[in-house]
Amino acid sequence: MAGIEVSALHKRYPDGTVAVDRVDLSIGDGELFVMLGPSGCGKTTTLRAIAGLERQTSGDIHIGDTLLNDLEPAERDIAMVFQFYALYPHLRTRDNLAFPLRAEGLPAAEVRERVDEAARMMKLEKLLDRRPNRLSGGEQQRVALARALVRRPRAFLMDEPLTNLDAELRADMRTEIKHLQAELGTTMVYVTHDQVEAMSLGHRIAILNQGRVEQVGTPLEVYQRPASLFCAGFIGSPPMNLLEVEVADGALRAPGGLTLTPPPGLPRDRQLVAGVRPEALEVTQPGAEGAVPARIVSAEALGDEIIYVVDHGGERDVRVRMPPTVRFGEDAPVGLRHAGGTPPVYDTTTEELVA
Description:
Elements: E1 4-12, E2 18-27, E3 32-36, H1 43-51, E4 58-63, E5 66-67, E6 78-81, H2 93-103, H3 108-121, H4 137-149, E7 155-159, H5 167-184, E8 187-192, H6 195-201, E9 204-209, E10 212-217, H7 219-224, H8 229-234, E11 241-248, E12 251-253, E13 259-260, E14 272-276, E15 281-284, E16 292-301, E17 306-311, E18 318-322, E19 333-338, E20 345-347
Parallel strand pairs: 3-8, 3-9, 6-7, 7-8
Antiparallel strand pairs: 1-2, 1-4, 4-5, 9-10, 11-12, 11-14, 12-13, 14-20, 15-19, 16-17, 16-19, 17-18
């Protein structure tokens, strides 16, 4: 096991496209670290550079004390699990698991021992004699994970491994991966564009945008205090409401009259945007204390909650998360108020968190 250090990683393709722009990451020994971002943000290129499948233009990559820059993928002692399972179709599960060990020339007894151990951990004992075409998508992904396990690498790299599974299987596999990583204690770097995966799996999350790291933090940190307007708009479902505000009379005033509690040390000479989570707003009866007049535009009932889209007279509608017991019909007149707490505030020019 070992931590991974990525220093000033830069990748420019011959046509001039910059895929990764001086990325710095410090991934702890035994950490489950998630790289999250939209398609084309550089997360997979970074992962492939760590694996040695993509050569960086500049920058250094270490695993433990070992500099990886000039090492071939097979010399890096890293196992990678891809979005597509890449199983050998003509081989049974047992032989798919054994293949990388036999390629290393390990004794047959050790190969059998490792295969049986990995099969036990991934609950594949009854599937060892099946070929991939007789396995479900979830079973094939467990085989791909087990094939990475048998090598006992210093680190695991996972590139969107659950994308091709349905929602229920993805939830089950998230649980299995999290439990597996905790049991092994091996460093794991996991790439995804799915924020639910990132928030549920990661000890820490790096949010990437246009080849750069926008923020690194725990799931709670990136949710509560996004470091930039991009992070604020990307994390959360629904995402943060971004409201232009001004400081007046010791409060933040948003268009439509909505009043927010300002954070301390807020600059007064800049154009500011406050980020307000949907659960930090409240829909009330019209005329309720502290509420501004508003109107329900739409309501989305999700079983355990209702997401209201509310017109409060501002430049854009806001989304409000409410319990299912609070019911308002579409186009109903309501009140809207801030439910408390101090929102993060951003500079509209730099798009960075200021308070």
